[in-house]
Here is the input.
Amino acid sequence: MSAKIEDVFAVVVNWNGGPANLDCLQALIEAGVPAQRTLFIDNGSQDGSLELVQARFGDLQVLVNPSNLGYGVAANQGARQALEQGARFVLFLNNDALLDPDCVQQLVNRGSERGSAGLLGPRIVVPGEPARLWAAGGRVGFHPNLSKLLGQGEPDGPAWCQTRPVDYVPGCVLLARRECLEQIGLFDEGYFAYTEDVDLGLRAVAGGWENCLVGVARAVHRASSATGGGYNPRRKYLMGLGSVRFLRTHGGFAGWAGFWLWDVVALPLVWLCALPRGNGRAVVAKGLGILHGILGKALDPGKLDKGKGLFW
Here is the structure.
C-alpha cells in the first residue's frame, strides 16, 4: 500500500528554543503536517518558548517534561505517542530546522517507492547560503568524531539531488518508517544529545534496512542552536561523552583507531589550533566529555545550563 503525507506524524523536541520554534512549526504545517499530527515535547524550558508555541499553535499535541531529560528520551516520548496513534512514518524534526514546502512529500514518495528504506532524510543547506550544503547524509569511519557529514561546505547542485544509500541520516530531519522502528527500537536514551542518530542508522543497517538520502527533498538547518551553535563547549562535551558510548556499541578496529588518533592523541594540537579562534574551551570540554565517558561518569543535566558548567 502506497504511503501518503497523512501517514506522517512529526516529533519536535524543545529546550529553550526561543522563537525559532515558531518558524520551524509554521514550515512544518506548510509542508503538509498539521499541528494536530505534531507531538511537541518540551524539556523543561525556562525561556518562555513553550508559552510562545502554545499561544500560536493551539492544536499541537504538547507534552511537558519537568526538566531536561535529553533529546533521546523526549524524542522517544513523542514517537511512542505517534505510533500509538497509527503513524506509518515518524518525522523527527529539530526545532532549528526549516523544511521546504515539498520536503515531507518527497520523503514519503521515496519511502513508498523503496520498501527497504527504513530511515530517510533530505539534503540540508546552510541558512542564508542556500547554494552551500550543510549535509547530504552521513558516513561512519576513520574520521574525527567517528562520523562525517557528507557534502558539508560543498556547493549544492544536481549531483546531490539523487536518492542513494548513506551510513546514517542526520537526526535534524529524519523520516523513520514504522516497521523499522518497531524492529530496531527507538533512539538509545543513553545518549543525552548528539550521536544518537548515527547509532540509530547503524542499527537500521544491521536490521537489514537502508538509510537513504532523498536529494530532491531539501531543508535548512541552523545547527546546534539549543547548545549555543556549532563549535561550543556544551556541544563538544556531549559529543565527547557520546563518542565513547558509541564505540562501546559499534567500535571496530577502524573506529577505535580513529578515535584515539583524532579525538585523543591529537587533542592538544587541536587545542593549540583552536586558541586563536577562541575555541580553546570547547576543545577542553570535549576532552572532559571523553574522560567522563571512559570513567562511566553519569551526566547531571542541570550542569548543562548556561553558567552551571566548568566551561560554559
Q: What stands out?
A: The longest strand covers residues 210-221. The first helix runs from residue 20 to 30. The chain has a mean pLDDT of 93.
